[in-house]
Write a structure and sequence with these properties.
- The chain is globular, with a radius of gyration of 17 Å.
- Helix 3 packs antiparallel against helix 4 and helix 5 crosses helix 6.
- The chain is α+β, with helices and mostly antiparallel strands and 159 residues long.
- The protein contains 6 helices and 5 strands, in the order E-E-E-E-H-E-H-H-H-H-H.
- The chain starts with 6 loop residues before the first strand and ends with a helix.
């Protein structure tokens, strides 16, 4: 169970801080929710405390883990080019995993594809979302501004 003030990552929304634990009644069923304030947006999510593991909510990685990840960023490879539907499903699975290397792979794959052939509107949104997820967690872990993290990601992944 998380506490107020904990920094956590939602696989599809990025990193944020738990601001409160509230009880809400929905359809006559009371439940506890984490009020998660996302770091790069003016948005607050309410996440059922009982569903965190199922949703993939996890603590932000440590500084050491973030630094080690950035060292390995040059080695991230692109996935094999596939049809749009298969590529989209595969990229969504990578994003939902919440794994930093898998999110980075989505960024690299879509960036390379964008340079070669361009991206559909859905893939452009997915690329922006993947960058947001990675930037928000690494900014928290390394205590650096998101813009500085965005530059590092661009230099190492999108060269």
């Amino acid at each position: 169970m998380f506490q107020i003030g904990d920094k956590v990552v939602h696989p599809l929304h990025g990193a944020g801080v738990i601001q409160d634990i509230v009880e809400r009644t929905i359809d006559g069923v009371p439940a506890q929710y984490y009020a998660l304030k996302l770091s790069l947006e003016d948005t607050q999510l309410f996440i059922p405390t009982e569903s965190c593991e199922k949703l993939g909510i996890r603590p932000v990685c440590s500084r050491r883990e973030a630094e080690a990840f950035l060292e390995q960023l040059d080695g991230i490879t692109c996935s094999v080019d596939k049809g749009w539907n298969q590529r989209y499903r595969e990229n969504m699975l990578h994003l939902r995993s919440g794994s930093l290397p898998e999110v980075a792979q989505v960024i690299k794959t879509l960036t390379v594809r964008d340079r070669k052939r361009g991206l559909s509107t859905g893939e452009k949104k997915m690329l922006a979302s993947a960058r947001h997820i990675l930037e928000s967690e690494l900014a928290f872990a390394l205590d650096r501004p998101p813009q500085a993290i965005a530059e590092i990601i661009s230099q190492k992944l999108c060269h």
